[in-house]
Amino acid sequence: MPTKCLYDAGHEWTLNSNLYFQNHEAVRQVTIILSSLHIDITFLVIVIAFLLLAKSARIIYLTLVFYTIRGVCQALFLFQYPSDWIFDDPGLFSLMVPYQKASDFYYSGHSGFLMMSTLEFIQMRLVSVAFINFLLMLFTGWMLITTRAHYTIGKVTLDSDIVIGWTFAIYTYRVVYLYKKTWDNFFRKLFGIA
User: Fold this and answer.
1) Distance CA 182, CA 188 (A)
2) What residue numbers bound the domain in which 41 lies?
3) pLDDT tens per residue across span 125-147
4) How far is 166 from 184, CA to CA, in rounded Å?
5) Residue 193 counted as domain residue
6) SS3 track for the chain
7) How many domains does the chain have?
8) Is residue 16 one of the residues assigned to a domain?
9) Per-residue pLDDT tens digits for 37-89
10) Residue 187 covered by a domain
11) First-residue to last-residue Cα distance in the chain
12) Neighbour-count burial of 43, counting CB atoms closer than 10 A to its CB (0-12 exposed, 13-18 middle, 19+ buried)
């Protein structure tokens, strides 16, 4: 049964895969695990790259701005859960992916993080890693819509909270990139770092 909201084309388009996942728990769990593993590995690579290569705290600013605004949105309004919501704990611990039910449908933190990571990989001139991350980001977006962890809300999926997560990540990245030198200088002075 499709999600009850205004209209969700993405949920209708992925109805067959949602029904398949409902009836094939092992396949659903492996799909969620693969997506979560990708996010965890991406996080670890970003952290290691930051510690070894970073000349700016850009990724920290980016993460703080992106998730702070997302948190404010979550505090202001909660969406109803889709009736066919099946994004659950697959039985494997994840560093970065919470499996509990959370009404965080404003813009996808999964998708935003993966887009920010793709942009950061490009900035580090790791273009092949960025390309692979981008492809896996599309897979994660499909998985989130199929398991109903996110909505698409609209007649086309271009207004989905997955795409909004990507778009807001790009916007936030551009804003942070513009101000990173100012912020770096401020924090260097604040903490007495030369």
Assistant:
1) 10
2) 9-87+99-181
3) 889 999 999 999 999 999 998 99
4) 25
5) no
6) CCCCCCCEHHHHHCHHHHHHHHHCHHHHHHHHHHHHHHHHHHHHHHHHHHHHHCCCCHHHHHHHHHHHHHHHHHHHCCCCCCCCCCCCCCCCCCCCCCCCCCCCCCCCHHHHHHHHHHHHHHHCCCHHHHHHHHHHHHHHHHHHHHCCCCCCCECCHHHCHHHHHHHHHHHHHHHHHHHHHHHHHHHHHHHCCC
7) 1
8) yes
9) 999 999 999 999 889 988 889 999 999 999 999 888 888 877 777 888 899 99
10) no
11) 60
12) middle
Q: Dihedral sign for Cα 6, 11, 15, 19, please.
A: negative
Q: Are 109 and 42 in contact (CB under 8 A)?
A: no
pTM of the model: 0.87
Question: For residues 18 and 146, is the Cβ–Cβ distance under 8 A?
Answer: yes
**115 within domain boundaries:** yes
| Type of residue at 2 | P
Alpha carbons within 13 A on the beta-carbon side of 135 = 5
Question: Which residues sit opposite 160 in a β-bridge?
Answer: none
**Joined tokens for residue 6:** 């205004």
- Alpha-carbon distance of 82 to 151, in angstroms, equals 8
Type of residue numbered 151: Y
- Residue matched to tokens 């000349």: 55
